[in-house]
Write a structure and sequence with these properties.
Layout (H helix, E strand, L loop, with lengths): L15 H20 L3 E2 L5 E3 H4 L4 H6 L3 E3 L10 H5 L3 H8 E5 L4 H10 L8 E10 L11 E10 L5 H16 L5 E7 H10 L6 H8 L2 H15 L4 H7 L9 H11 L4 H20 L5 E4 L13 E7 L6 E8 L13 E7 H10 L13 E3 L4 H16 L4 E3 L6 H11 L3 E4 L2 H6 L1 E6 L5 E5 L3 H5 L1
Parallel strand pairs: 1-5, 7-8, 12-13, 12-14
Antiparallel strand pairs: 2-4, 3-4, 5-6, 6-11, 7-9, 9-10, 10-11, 14-15, 15-16
Helix pairs in contact: 1-7, 1-14, 8-13, 9-10, 12-13
Length: 455
């Protein structure tokens, strides 16, 4: 009996047309990164557990794919921990490496490891896959690509402004019809915790707040209660759920709320600077929205927090990022502030596919297919095909001498633009019959005319 085949949930195969569309996204984002002075790097698909664990919070750590030790190392598993129901300790004894959860923490490790070879501030971009053991659903995969751009070695808020412009330019160029950049600051969240006298519960507060758009106000309140946040603190925070008006109105309310928090007011100052400068410089299509409940659930953010959503389709965030002041400090390199963004290429793909926004020319196959009419004709077709390729015209010669109907079916499946036919008469006259597969029109061209005719 044949083995039943398949792939793991949360992963996908990509057919040629899928890859062409994905490369279209990657190439646009890459070109904008390079236009803004970012240089490419790559890091391994898996890292040591000590590099990744503890950097994403308890929730993030649970979503990291562990790689089981192999060979003799398996014998060193701590079976006593298993018997004592210490599952975390047992799992750690079975695994030394994990698939990367994102590109930012590996980038911090990269910077520390190669600090003597890099100019600072260092501007890098990276387009590679990451893995998360999340529950697969529409727009959420266990294997997906991130397109990151980071600046490390500078505290200047002008980098945030440049990154917001890159988001705006990239999504505009990708024809996303309407999108919103949501902005917050970790210092504001810390200030809220301070005003509520809940500094020790900042992680619980931010993780609960970050779920507002998914579970609503009542759900967040229940989350607070589940995490033992006192009722008086919850009542102080609740009015912030309904913060509305212009960005300036929101900042005014927040400034009043945080007037006794030095760290909170510092966050307000940073937010005001960004809002003012973006207003001065302008954006193409993006709307900028202060969202005080935005936290993104990552423990390493220390300043600006960025998240982008498409306005016309329910998809979750399609881009995000933020400022991290001492992520490299976890690996021994102190005082190396950084800020970065990440385009969610897979969700962007789904939006473009759903709204039929990919350029139509991406669906085109090779420009010309020479059908096989016999040995002599094929030999001449190969000569002409080489000449066309020298002129930058994509083409293919059907290698097998089979029925013409089968070759035309192949041309249709490939979405070929033109089919070139040469029989005995064409060989004698040194011509080619060229059929336009879209209109059905057919014209005859000399071998010397063919390249110019196709151009």
């Amino acid at each position: 009996m044949a083995q039943k085949i398949g792939i793991p949930k949360g992963t996908r195969d990509f057919l040629p047309q899928n890859v062409l569309k994905r490369n279209y996204i990657f190439n646009i984002i890459k070109s904008i990164f390079e236009l803004n002075g970012f240089s490419p790097i790559e890091t391994p698909s898996f890292e040591l557990n000590k590099t990744l664990l503890g950097k994403y919070g308890e929730e993030g750590d649970r979503l990291i794919f562990r790689i089981m030790n192999s060979g003799e190392k398996v014998k060193k598993a701590d079976t006593e921990a298993l018997q004592n129901n210490e599952l975390g300790k047992f799992v750690s004894s079975l695994s030394e490496k994990s698939l990367r959860y994102d590109l930012t923490v590996p980038f911090a490790r990269f910077v520390v490891q190669h600090q003597n070879d890099l100019p600072f501030p260092f501007k890098r971009y990276q387009i590679q896959p990451v893995w998360r053991a999340d529950r697969p659903q529409h727009g959420r995969y266990q294997e997906f690509y991130q397109c990151d751009a980071d600046v490390i070695g500078s505290k200047s808020l002008w980098h945030e402004i440049n990154l917001l412009q890159i988001i705006d330019k990239g999504l505009s160029k990708l024809n996303i019809p309407s999108f919103t950049i949501h902005l917050n600051n970790r210092k504001i969240l810390s200030g809220i915790a301070e005003i509520c006298d809940q500094q020790e519960n900042i992680i619980d507060i931010t993780q609960a707040l970050d779920k507002l758009d998914k579970i609503g106000e009542e759900g967040v309140v229940k989350e607070f209660e589940k995490r033992n946040i006192p009722t008086d603190a919850i009542n102080l925070i609740k009015p912030l759920f309904q913060l509305s008006g212009s960005n300036e109105d929101k900042l005014s309310v927040l400034k009043s709320f945080l007037e006794k928090s030095k760290v909170g007011l510092k966050g307000i100052d940073e937010m005001e600077f960004i809002i003012q400068k973006i207003k001065l410089l302008g954006l193409n299509k993006a709307k900028l929205n202060i969202n005080v409940t935005l936290a993104r659930g990552l423990n390493y953010y220390t300043g600006s927090i960025i998240e982008v959503t498409a306005d016309d389709i329910k998809m979750g965030s399609i881009c995000g990022g933020g400022r991290y002041d001492d992520l490299t400090g976890l690996f021994g390199l102190k005082d190396m502030s950084g800020v970065g963004i990440s385009f969610g290429a897979d969700r962007i793909y789904d939006i473009l596919e759903t709204l039929d926004l990919f350029p139509k020319e991406l669906s085109k196959g090779v420009k010309v297919l020479f059908v096989n009419m016999g040995e002599k004709e094929t030999e001449q077709a190969m000569v002409l095909a080489n000449q066309l390729k020298e002129n930058g015209i994509s083409c293919e010669v059907y290698a097998d001498h089979v029925k013409l109907a089968k070759q035309m079916k192949y041309a249709n499946k490939l979405n070929v633009e033109f089919v070139a036919v040469m029989g005995d008469n064409e060989l004698i006259n040194k011509t080619v019959q060229l059929k336009n597969m879209t209109t059905g029109e057919q014209d005859e061209f000399s071998w010397n005319e063919l390249s110019n005719a196709l151009k």
